[in-house]
Amino acid sequence: MSVESVRNFFIEKGLKDPVFELKESGATVELAAQTIGVQPDAIAKTLALHAKDKDILIVMRGSLRIDNKKYKSVFNTKAKMFSYDEVKEITGHPVGGVCPFGLKNQIAIYLDVSIKDNDFIYPAAGSQYHALKISPEEMLKLTNAEWVDVCEYKTL
């Protein structure tokens, strides 16, 4: 159902379904990059976190990690990941398939500036075996996200 909710997200907006099936699992950044045939920097991972007063998703370059100081300066709290069980319960997507599309609940979405310089990124699409190709700007518009700088990487 999760992949279907991602597909429906795009179809309901009058867009073509961008979801494609992977031949191998894309559960990790390395596996996704290898399966799709791109560099790991083109893979967009989506982290599900509890901020002080809300749940959030952060889409970031797959090869990077959260910088705790930057995160705390933006969200005024320490980064606290969802538990394994909370991921599916809150987002509607399983671990390894989380993306900012077709969510079960309203969740604030943030895009880290680390993906900004990519022409296209490849986030998961509701399962470990599905992904999609999208520009960061299109993702920003479709999800009403906000840009943040919370990764160890900083654009030049």
Unreliable stretches, pLDDT < 50, 5 or more residues?
Answer: none
Q: Which second-level CATH architecture applies? A: Alpha-Beta Complex
- Outline the biggest β-sheet: 6 strands, mixed
SSE string, helices as H and strands as E: HEHEEHEHEEEHE
Mean pLDDT, all residues: 95
Helix content: 25-40%
Number of strands: 8
End-to-end Cα distance, whole Å, is 40 Å
How does this model look, in words?
It is a single chain. With 156 residues, this protein is α/β, with parallel strands linked by helices. The protein has one domain: YbaK/aminoacyl-tRNA synthetase-associated domain (YbaK protein). It is 28% helix and 21% strand. It is built from 5 helices and 8 strands; from the N terminus they run αβαββαβαβββαβ. It has helices at residues 2-12, 29-36, 68-75, 84-91, 136-143, and strands at 19-21, 43-50, 55-61, 80-81, 108-112, 122-123, 130-132, 146-148. Strands 2, 3, 4, 5, 6 and 8 form a 6-stranded mixed beta sheet that branches. The chain has a two-stranded antiparallel ribbon with strand order 1-7. The mean pLDDT is 95.
